[in-house]
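Late entry, written up from scratch paper. The run itself happened at the end of the previous shift, but nothing got recorded in the book at the time, so transcribing now.
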Amino acid sequence: MCAEIGQVRGGTTCTVLTVKASRSPIPGSVSSKRSSCTPGPRLCEPPIMSAPGVLSFTQQGWEQVLAKVRWALVYLDAACAESLHWGCGSTRLLEAVGGPACHLREFEPAAVGGGAEQPKAVFVLSCLLKGRTVETLRDIICRSHFQYCVVVTAVNHAVHLTANHVPAAAAAELEGQPVFEQLEEKLCEWMGNMNYTAEVLHVPLLFAPVAPHLALTPAFASLFPLLPQDVRLLNSARPDKRRLASLNEVDASALPPELLLQIRCLVSGLSSLCEHLGVREECFAVGSLSRIIAADLANYGPAKNRRKTATGRASVVFVDRTLDLTGAVGHHGDNLLEKIISALPQLPGHTNDVMVNMVELTALQNEEKNQSMVAPGCLAQSNDPAARALWEALLSTKHKEAVMEVRRHLVEAASRENLPIKMSMGRVTPGQLMSYIQLFKNNLKALVNHCGLLQLGLATVQTLKHPQTAKWDNFLAFERLLLQSIGESTMSVVLNQLLPMIKPLNQRTDDDYSPAELLILLIYIYSVSGEFTVDKDLGEAEEKVKKALAQVFCEESEFCPLLQKITAHGRRTTPVTQSPKLRGTSHSASLAEVSRGLCLSQSLGHPPAG
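Output as recorded:
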């Protein structure tokens, strides 16, 4: 089992299951139910689960949640909503809730409470039940009329004890689950009657299963490997202790408590997955933060009994994303799905899915003003077997084969619905695929039967037509040229080759690189170059590039989402003579530091559409 810590293209922390033998390891789902009355019988029987894997693990967790939601208002945070989105779909949750109205709400301080006719609430949360999360719970409950509250957390009780500074020795002697039990009492207090019913339970819902053996962890979208400049921050936070010279000297004791808790939450989820798989894991790591996480999992107390009874073995390999940034920003992949995720806009509130324009399947004109009138499609099709089969094929096939696979699925679907399809051989074009898709437009039954497949088909068409796709080969050619130049020339020569490509808005054509694309190229350059000598020529070249970039930024009328995150700016409101600062950098910072600092942006794994 492998876990990449950081971001991948179109996603965040990634867990890939590959069970195998291993050597030389690094040494060394429980619920609480306390209520004033016995809850009703289980209302949702789980479906037949597939073979043990990350998909069945997530589905099993959601079945525990679905058993609690009958006639309830359901509040989900973004990470749990994404896990539901990929694991079993919102339709499954709505069916379990029952009733004609939609009872799903986002968990946030401004969330609407429940009225007198809504006495039950279920909160599904990916985080610790502590701090602002508990305050938000209190605020929602106090402005509602709930008589029965269920709080589901993806973080187990042992981590809650750690968060509440309970020593490991004392935690081992505790009976029950006091943190959950105390919160249950608070829930009753906030509902206004201690005889009302409250439950707090742990269900491991940290994974978003993209495929049966591939999962992402949206709850850890912000967990990113340490960078060299972080050593200064760590030293400043511990002035009385030995100074750290490099990342190689950083261990768990040097990390801030918030980061340690985040790591422990991840470790808790991975341990639960290993328990589901019935394996005893052996941990390996490449990178400073990965080393800390691997050691924490290897020494995780609650997992010791599990390992004694496990019948299988698994290798868990953690890799810092920063050790392979070219994989996140490069264009050398010949995969259609990679291009879809790069070209189409991100689905709001999600870290790993995109919006698919569905207007083509309606009577509306495909104009920008109409696009917000129709709910977008997406890539996740958890309840459509045919669409899921196509999705899994897209994950592993090359671009040409993937496009042909999309055509084959559309043709077979149209044939099953007896639609008047005209077969054409040869090269697959966007127009050909769209002609097949539009056959379903005026046939409601066929449209409903194959809605998931049509969403993937439209995603393919929109990607093939997208300007970003047309520039993909340009990126690839330039990256190959860079690789050749870096091998034969100094870094200053490479930067001087890039300089003429940095053009302000009024001089750019569709074939030129946007500011965001230039930043991605810079990250690529500094990632593949490795260590290099800093001399006068390099300093002058970096200053020229920084000056050109600053001028380009200042002349942009509106920043794309990536630049907004990096500069903390939206529309330009400062005079053109003032350069926007990159977040976390100064004007005197070297271009190498700026480029590596850009890795902190959460959009790094999702290159902009231009």
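The radius of gyration is 26 Å.
(Scratch paper discarded after transcription.)
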